[in-house]
Amino acid sequence: MQHKGRRVVVMGGSRGIGRAIALGFAREGAAVAVCARGAAGLEAVRQDLAALGATAHAAPCDLADAEQIAAFIPNAAAALGGIDVLVNNASGFGSTDDEAGWAASFNVDMMATVRASRAALPFLEQSGSGAIVNLSSISALRASARSAPYGAIKAAIDHYTGSQAKMYAAKGIRVNAVAPGSIEFPGGSWEQRRLEGSPLYESVRSQIPAGRLGEPEEVADVVLFLASHGARWVTGQSIVVDGGQLIGP
Known about the structure:
single chain; alpha/beta; seven-stranded parallel beta sheet; 8 helices
């Protein structure tokens, strides 16, 4: 994947998909910076990154807070010596069709992506081979009565990804998105539903031709590809990673 020596920032990298992405880059020799709100989770992933021999930077950052993002990005660039790859992974998981649900998705999923990209842009320009990967969702591609704000904002992220790709192409920066299906990991919402015996878990699992939910590493592998030289002619795309969930029964 040719990430040795590259400098990667993962926004929301302390657990689940974000953690798998950070560790994936570290295994390939990249220096990695991560942020999240929880100090304990950040320290754990920092230790995991360091154990892989990676230069690792971890700092708390509330991704709903514009000032904290504006401070974290240049600090991460200073710690890594620059930024070659930005991964916008964090989500507020707004599900309820009310002010709180919409605010959660808009402030974190949408505006953190906008703000982090804007803050990282000067460093990505200096890279010469900069890449942004935004995390979308298959929820962007179909209507949902269960999580209207989440799906609508993820659809906006897909659209913004294409706009970014057009805006930044002349600066030598590619921008793509990854749209995961239902992903299960320790401490995540799908694991909780499975342990509780929620009918929703079995309903979703039955829709996936592979007969199981996805794993964070299966999403991370696609993120690493899109950020790599192997995807040098890929930009403005949103790649679905769902085990066939969208085409299931």
